[in-house]
Design brief:
The protein has 15 helices and 12 strands. The chain is an alpha+beta fold. The protein has 2 domains: 101 residues, 2-Layer Sandwich (Phosphorylase Kinase, domain 1); 298 residues, Alpha-Beta Complex (Aminoglycoside 3'-phosphotransferase, Chain: A, domain 2), CATH 3.90.1200.10. The protein has a 5-stranded antiparallel beta sheet, with helices on both faces. Helix 9 crosses helix 12 and helix 10 packs antiparallel against helix 14. The N and C termini lie far apart (61 Å). Bound molecules: adenosine-5'-diphosphate, 5-S-methyl-5-thio-alpha-D-ribofuranose and magnesium ion.
């Protein structure tokens, strides 16, 4: 059958013969189907049977958020499937299990995550997830290290780069929406009314426009490893104990720092949005401290796990042991690692700054800020986040991890009060 989008009414008839579903949730005669997609791009169905629930995710031939005026290739489901299977192998247990993939129908059948909720919803409510930074630091290190030339042979790496190079339509979205559109009056941009006095000086800042293009340059040319490509708080599902990484359809070979910076940016956006979610001024100070603690911890865990992998799994084509440890120069390997981590950090800060900007000035915003009921408070929160992003991106070469919490706190207390 040619590709056709599923509907709650057609899903059972079309997928009811698949053992991948019936073995897990029971016969299709008893299925109930609900479409629950709240992302920007795809259809997501929860299918409930007599034995349980399952997720069916299907790509549409256009961007759901915008409509059929913006066509998008169906093959993004192919890249999501391949990224999910690589993530499952590289950091077992951190992504939903895939039960079935149909390339022609651009659909993936996967584990229904429950009682997980989308991290962004949880952050708006002020719920703490003490394992978040630890899980994400390890996931980032393992997925990025094990997908890179530090781990893989040249042949495996280049064949995989060739496969994911075809995901250029999704890369194109990021190249425009993340790195360029926020810095001029692009057609699909939108912003909170009242924010104009803060936007004009931001766009006039030449150093910032150069920093954003340097970040884009890194994104386009540093094909270092397989990145998730869209690692914001809407791509994580959490419980009190667990963290699951979903939705890697933007996967492409890119810089180590991309996923790291994007995740950190989303913690900072959540931080600056807290004034919109507290009953009394300062009522969310404990939650602010938690978010900044997670921000620091994710990098520390990431760097620590990279160190472990550097010692134990450096089997790829870069920094060969024959040049260092095997030649009696362990300190040389240690020094090389310091340089590698430093490069990732500087890149990550560039990506962090632009991600903060595009979620306020571009097409795709975040609920953390959108859900702020008081428009005046929202403008202030967004102005602060814009300023923090500007400093992070333009001063990325001199900023240290220890600087970030103080920077965020100072700006949160000072800008435009
Ligand atoms: P999109 O690609 O359109 O952004 P997502 O993969 O982010 O779609 O999924 C949209 C929504 O569907 C998520 O916000 C979440 O609520 C739900 N969802 C997606 N995958 C799962 C899953 N494996 N288990 C439970 N819910 C899921
Ligand atoms: C047009 S797609 C907008 C955004 O949604 C996705 O989740 C990515 O973040 C993309 O930039
Ligand atoms: Mg999504």
């Amino acid at each position: 059958m040619d590709y056709a989008p599923l509907t709650p009414d057609t899903l059972a008839a079309r997928l009811g013969g698949l053992p991948a579903l019936t073995d897990r949730i029971g016969p299709s005669s008893g299925w109930q189907v609900a479409e629950v997609g709240d992302g920007n791009l795809n259809l997501v169905f929860i299918v409930t049977g007599s034995l349980g629930k399952i997720i069916v995710k299907q790509a549409l031939p256009y961007i759901r958020l915008v409509g059929d005026s913006w066509p998008l290739p169906l093959n993004r489901a192919f890249f999501e499937y391949h990224a999910l299977t690589r993530h499952a192998a590289r950091d077992p247990g951190r992504v939903p299990e895939v039960y079935h993939f149909d390339e022609g129908q651009a659909l993936i059948v996967m584990r229904y995550l429950s009682p997980h909720v989308i991290l962004r919803k949880s952050v708006v409510k002020g719920v703490q997830h003490p394992n978040l930074a630890r899980h994400m630091g390890v996931f980032l290190a393992r997925s990025l290290f094990r997908g890179s030339a530090l781990s893989l042979s040249g042949r495996v790496l280049r064949e995989d780069m060739a496969l994911f190079a075809a995901n250029h339509a999704l890369a194109d979205i990021s190249e425009n929406l993340v790195f360029s559109d926020p810095y001029f009056a692009a057609k699909l941009n939108r912003h909170t009314p009242g924010l104009e006095p803060f936007i004009a000086p931001l766009r006039a800042d030449r150093a910032l426009r150069i920093a954003a293009q340097e970040a884009k340059h890194a994104f386009v040319s540093k094909t270092e490893t397989l990145v998730h490509g869209d690692l914001h708080s809407g791509s994580l599902m959490v419980t009190a104990e667990d963290t699951q990484v979903i939705d890697p359809e933007f996967a492409i070979y890119g810089p180590f720092g991309f996923d790291v910076g994007m995740f950190m940016a989303n913690l900072l956006l959540a931080f600056f949005a807290q004034s919109g979610h507290e009953d009394t001024p300062g009522g969310r100070d404990g939650y602010r401290a938690y978010l900044l603690g997670q921000l620091t911890q994710v990098w520390q865990v990431f760097a620590g796990e990279i160190r472990v992998l550097w010692q134990a799994e450096r089997t790829g084509i870069l920094y060969e042991r024959s040049l260092f440890e095997d030649a009696g120069d362990k300190p040389g390997a240690d020094a090389a690692l310091v340089g590698v981590l430093r490069g990732i950090w500087v890149d990550a800060m560039g990506f962090c700054g632009v991600e903060m900007h595009r979620r306020i000035l571009g097409l795709a915003h975040v609920e953390d800020l959108e859900a702020m009921a008081d428009p005046a408070r929202r403008v202030l929160a967004e102005a602060r986040a814009l300023e923090a992003g500007r400093i992070i991106a333009t001063r990325r070469a001199s900023l240290s991890l220890a600087d970030l919490p103080a920077l965020a706190t100072d700006i949160d207390r000072s800008v435009a009060r």
